[in-house]
C-alpha cells in the first residue's frame, strides 16, 4: 500500500511558536503509531520565527528536541541557499522543493499567520488537501469582532460587547474620554479588553475602573488595530470539541478551573495553574444545549475538520453564552481538544487519522 505523504507544517511567526512545536510533536507521534505507520509518511516543514521555511534535517531536529532553532542554527540551515544577500532576502518567501511531494497538509500553526486564513489561502493555491478550515472559516474564527457578528446572525447568545478601532483609542484627547464613557455606559465593570486578532490571551486585560480601562485600551491597541471590549460575567468556563465537515459531531463537555483572576497567558501555559475537568459536571439538558450550540457555531463561521468552542455557563440563571470558536486549537497530548475526544471514545492516533481523511474528503470533487 502506498503511503500518503503528510506535510506537517509547524512553527510560524506568531507568539505561539513554541506551542505549535509541542502540537506538531504530538501529531508526529500519532502518525507513527502502529495503526497509522503503514498509512502515512511524515514530511515535516518548520517555519522559523523570521518566516523562512525549512525541510529535511532542520524540522526533524526541532521535532526531536522540542525546542526552536537558535539563531546560529538558523543561519547554518539557510546558509547553503546562496551567498547572495538579495537572494537570501527573497528566500524567506520561497518554499523548499519537498513541498511538491506533499499529498495532504496538516498545518498546526497557532495564532496570526497560522489560523487566520493566510496559510490556508496559500495551501488552497497549492491545490492540495489540508486539515482544518478554509480561508473564510479560519479568518472568521480568528477575528473576534467578525466572529461575534457571525454568532449574532446565527442567533447564538453571547455577552454584551463593543467593537473599537485603534484610531478611536489613539485619537484626539477630547474624543477618547467620550469613548470610555460609552463603554462604561454599555458594559459597566468588570470588563475585558482584547485585541481582536491574537490568541492565547495575549494583550487581554480585566478592568474594574476608568484608569484600568484607559490603560488596557492603550495596551491592546499596541497589538492590533481592531479591539473588542466585553462585559464581565460570573460563570463557569466550559468547552466542546467539534469534528467533521458538513455533518460534524460534538464531543463531551470539558471545564477549565483556575485560581487566578482570569484565564490569562500565564495561567494557560504554566503547569499546575489550571485544571481540565472532563466530563464537566453539568445537567444533561445543559450539556446537550452546549453541544448543539457548538455545532451551530461551527456552521456559522463555515469551519471544517476541527474546532474547539468555548462557552460561559451561568449557573444562577442556567444561561449558556458562547465565548469563541478556535479553528486550530492546541493539539498536545494534554490539550483540551484531543482530551475531549479521548473521553468521547476517539484516541489521539485515531483523531489524527480522521482529520486527514476529512481533509481529503473535503477537497475531493463531489
UniProtKB/TrEMBL annotation:
Pathway: Cell wall biogenesis; peptidoglycan biosynthesis
GO molecular function list: ligase activity
InterPro entries registered for this protein in UniProt: ATP-grasp (IPR011761), ATP_grasp_subdomain_1 (IPR013815), D-Ala_lig_Van_CS (IPR000291), D_ala_D_ala (IPR005905), Dala_Dala_lig_C (IPR011095), Dala_Dala_lig_N (IPR011127), PreATP-grasp_dom_sf (IPR016185)
Compartment annotation: Cytoplasm
Domain of life (superkingdom): Bacteria
Primary location class: cytoplasm
Keywords: ATP-binding, Cell shape, Cell wall biogenesis/degradation, Cytoplasm, Ligase, Magnesium, Manganese, Metal-binding, Nucleotide-binding, Peptidoglycan synthesis
Residue span, ATP-grasp domain: 148-357
Catalysed reaction equations from the record: 2 D-alanine + ATP = D-alanyl-D-alanine + ADP + phosphate + H(+)
Listed EC numbers: 6.3.2.4
UniProt cross-references to PROSITE patterns, sorted A to Z: ATP_GRASP, DALA_DALA_LIGASE_1, DALA_DALA_LIGASE_2
Obligatory cofactor(s): Mn(2+); Mg(2+)
Gene3D superfamilies associated with the record: 3.40.50.20, ATP-grasp fold, A domain, ATP-grasp fold, B domain
Record flagged with keyword Thylakoid: no
HAMAP family reported for this sequence: Dala_Dala_lig
Family per record: Belongs to the D-alanine--D-alanine ligase family.
Function: Cell wall formation.
Protein name, as recorded: D-alanine--D-alanine ligase
Native source organism of the sequence: Nostoc favosum CHAB5714
Source taxonomy: Bacteria, Bacillati, Cyanobacteriota, Cyanophyceae, Nostocales
